[in-house]
C-alpha cells in the first residue's frame, strides 16, 4: 500500500516539473516571437548615400580606323583608256619619290582612235591642198579654201590633244612624292577606263583616324580637341595622338554612329589599323550622385530621396556620367539630401522604406 502511494507521489512531482518547464519554454518562445515581430521593417530595405556637389572628369571613348586624308591623296590615272602592262607596287608599301609605280600602254581602242585621228588629219590636209590648187585655177572660192583650212586645223588640234593625253608606246609612271600605297586595284593585263585611278598614294604625314562616336557624346566634343589614340590589336600599348578636325552632322546608316575625323600628329599608327580614341572632356560641375542611384524610366531618368522614412521620386536631367558617378540637375534635389543607391528600382513615390544601417 505504501509503495503504491509513493509511486503516485513521484508521478505527480514529475508532471509538475514538466508543466513548469513547458510554461518557461512558452514564455521564452513568445518573447522571441515578439522580438522578431519588432525587427520586421515597415517597408522595403534600401541603402543610401548623400548627394554631393562637385565635378567628375571622364573620357569619351570611340573606335575607328586609320585612313588617308582625302584631300592629300595623290591619284595616278591615264586620261585615255590604257592596258596595264605591269604593277611594281603593292597596297601598304612605302615608296620614295621617283619609284616606279606601274607600266601601261595604249589599249586597242585607244590605238584605233589615234590611227583614225591621223587618217582624219591626212585626209583634211589633202583636201586643203586640193582647195588651194582649185583656188589657183579659179575653180574654187576663197571661202571654200578657208573652210578646208579650218577642217585641217581642227584635225591637227584633235590629234595633238590625243597625243598629249595618250601613250604612243609602253611607259613607266613614277611617284612624284614619298608616301604609302593606299589603293592599287588593277592587275597586269587589265584594261583601265579613261580617268580611272590606277594607283593612289597617301603622302607621309597625311593620315587621319575616322572615329565613330555615340550620338549622345557628340555634343560633348568640339573641333580642335586633343585625342589620345592607341592600336587595339597590339600586344603592348603604344599611344599616339591627334586633333579633331571635323565632326560630321549625320548618322552613318551602317553603324548608327557619328563619324569624327581626327588628324594624326605622329607616325605611330599604320594605314587601316583599328584604333581606340579617348577624348578627355572638361569636367562639369553640379550635383553628384552614385551611378547606382539612377533609375531609368521610359522617357526620363529619376532618383529617389528618403525623408523621415518615406521615399520621394525626382525626375532629373543626366548631365554626364562616369563608371561610378553621375552629375544631375533637378529643381527638387539639393546637396546633402539622402539618395537611394540600393533597391531604388522597385520603389514608387511616397512608399515607406527601411534604411539599412
List the helices and strands and how they pair.
Elements: H1 2-39, E1 45-50, E2 52-68, E3 74-77, E4 82-87, E5 94-95, E6 100-106, H2 108-136, H3 142-165, E7 171-174, E8 179-183, E9 191-192, E10 197-203, E11 207-213, H4 215-218, E12 226-231, E13 239-251, E14 258-264, E15 274-290, E16 295-296, E17 301-307, E18 310-321, E19 325-329, E20 338-342, E21 354-355
Parallel strand pairs: 1-21
Antiparallel strand pairs: 1-20, 2-11, 2-15, 3-10, 4-6, 4-9, 5-8, 6-7, 8-10, 11-14, 12-13, 12-15, 13-14, 15-19, 16-17, 17-18, 18-19
Helix pairs in contact: 2-3
Count of all domains? 3
Question: Which strands sit side by side, in order, in the main sheet?
Answer: 2-11-14-13-12-15
The low-confidence runs, each spanning 5 or more residues with pLDDT under 50, are 29-41
- Write the CATH fold name of the largest domain: OB fold (Dihydrolipoamide Acetyltransferase, E2P)
Shape: elongated
Number of helices: 4
- The CATH superfamily title of the largest domain: RNA polymerase II/Efflux pump adaptor protein, barrel-sandwich hybrid domain
Count the beta strands: 21
Separation of the first and last Cα atoms: 69 Å
**Approximate strand percentage:** 35-45%
For the CA atoms, what is the radius of gyration? 44 Å
Average of per-residue pLDDT values: 83
Main sheet makeup:
6 strands, antiparallel, barrel
Work out the helicity level: 25-40%
Level-2 CATH architecture of the largest domain: Beta Barrel
Instruction: Give me the secondary-structure category.
Output: alpha+beta
What does this structure look like?
The chain is of the alpha+beta class and 357 residues long. It has 3 domains: 46-56 and 284-355, conserved putative lor/sdh protein from methanococcus maripaludis s2 fold (Beta Barrel), CATH 2.40.420.20; 61-69 and 205-283, Elongation Factor Tu (Ef-tu), domain 3, CATH 2.40.30; 70-202, RNA polymerase II/Efflux pump adaptor protein, barrel-sandwich hybrid domain (OB fold (Dihydrolipoamide Acetyltransferase, E2P)). The protein is built from 4 helices and 21 strands. The strands form 4 sheets. Strands 2-11-14-13-12-15 form a 6-stranded antiparallel barrel. A 4-stranded antiparallel sheet has the order 3-10-8-5, with no helix packed on it. A hairpin with a 3-residue loop joins strand 18 and strand 19. The model is unreliable at 29-41 (pLDDT under 50).
